[in-house]
What does this fold into?
Amino acid sequence: RRVHGGNRQLKKSSKGMLLRLPLLVLSFFVGLLAIEERNLQSTAPKYLFLVRNFVPLVGCTVNGNNSLAQFTGYTVQLIQKIAAEFKWTYGKDYGFECVPSYEDIYLRMSNSGNQMIVGEGALRINSTWTAKDIKYSQPTYPSGLRMVVRQKNIRDMWSFAQPISWRVGLGLVISCAIVGVLIWIYEEKNWKRQRKSEHVLNLIEVLYDVFSSFFATNSITLRKWASKLLQWFTWVYVIIFVALYQADLTGKLSSSYFELEIASYDEALGNGAKIATLEEYKSELGGRSFDYRPTGDRNQTMMAIFQDLDERKVDAVIAEVPLVDYYMPQFCNFFMLDDIITGTPYVTAFSKNVDQNTIYLYTQYLTKWQENQQIRSIKKQAFDSGNNPDCGDDNNVITIKELGGLWIILASTAFIAIILFILRKCGWCQTPSNYMPPYYEYYNEKTQLFEEQLKEAVHTELKKIAKNYYEHIEQEIQTFEDTLMLQDNPTGDKKEEVVEIPQAKNPKKVFKTVRRDDDKGGVIVDPNDVQFKEDNDRF
It folds into this structure.
């Protein structure tokens, strides 16, 4: 009995140990899990930044490597600058983790436990999550929906003439022509000209001088007060016209030579324009019948939408502000209109276990860097896709092609000048040698008086010289003739001689006085001593 009783006790104790063994194993694994969790907590960063992929603010890959190099974008670089102010070390004091959506960020923040979580990636203030003790920083980037439209290039080879309407140009030409005709009438010195064509030349010269006033190339000094008054009015007219033209042309050049195909959101709705946008904005846009595209990969979808706008497959694009700022510079001739819907700015969210002092310092550092000049280079680097075309200069600077009208005018003028030059060289278009301009140019009255006296004195002297010359040459000729006649006829009488011409049958002219030229065997005849005989064939 005693032995059997001991065996029964041994069996009972062994059975108890077998029942307690699973509990011991379970407690062992629970302890291992607790140790692993403590190890994980000791290696996790103090502040975990949950971000979602939203280029250009944040660029990341879900379930990817959480190394710092895998996170890009404007907000990521801004967080790194703020972390440097805190003297945080990546991986120990702070880190990044990419999540699919902003809902995942808020869920993780509401169940953060002891983990201090910071949310980033195009987050807005949400009243629902604010009630759950989620805190927010000041704005990090503006938000809202904007519309992008195409610009229509209105530049052509006649752009320089845009400030002048055809009515103004025609009025200018007519007024200058009237002034030129009146000045020609007042300044014409001689209305009884032998050649009437000189009046036309005078008119052309006066018209040239009047029109050249636009370029200050003429040197007209008119003599009649009526002409002076007209010329003064012409100068006033020219000065006002040139000033208005320059002001208008400068305004057009400084603004742009582009017109918008769609000027406003209301105009797009009224004209039934085809507008492309993301499907996630449908509720904000009131469910209007736009061309909604599934978000999917936001980067690819937005690039496809902007390419459709550039290829004229759609008339306008609606997107959030950072998306417009990122994709619009990748195309030329796009223009961003004002906000269609002004949304609350993007902010940074903090879980409830982040202390208020940290949030305060974070906001202070954020303000500091937003006001820093380096933020421009950070933003430029983040918003530069690397595919931005160099189209800024072409849109703002006048090119040679756009001045083609001036080259056409210059070529036409050169061609006409060449034709006139050839005509004058060939003698088909000559100005009369004694052509008198319709007016003279004098610098002052003394110069005018001196020139008139000089002309009169020169004219008198020339008449004297000519008279003396003609008288002297006549005397020399008479003396020479007398000498020749004395050599032929010493007695001084004229010698008459009849010369027979056998070939002449009925000559009419007979020379009375004939002097022979013994050296050459010919005769010298005085044409004044001609007589007529009809009786025979001799003279």
The first strand starts at residue 47 and ends at 52. The CA atoms of residues 263 and 298 lie 27 Å apart. The radius of gyration is 54 Å.
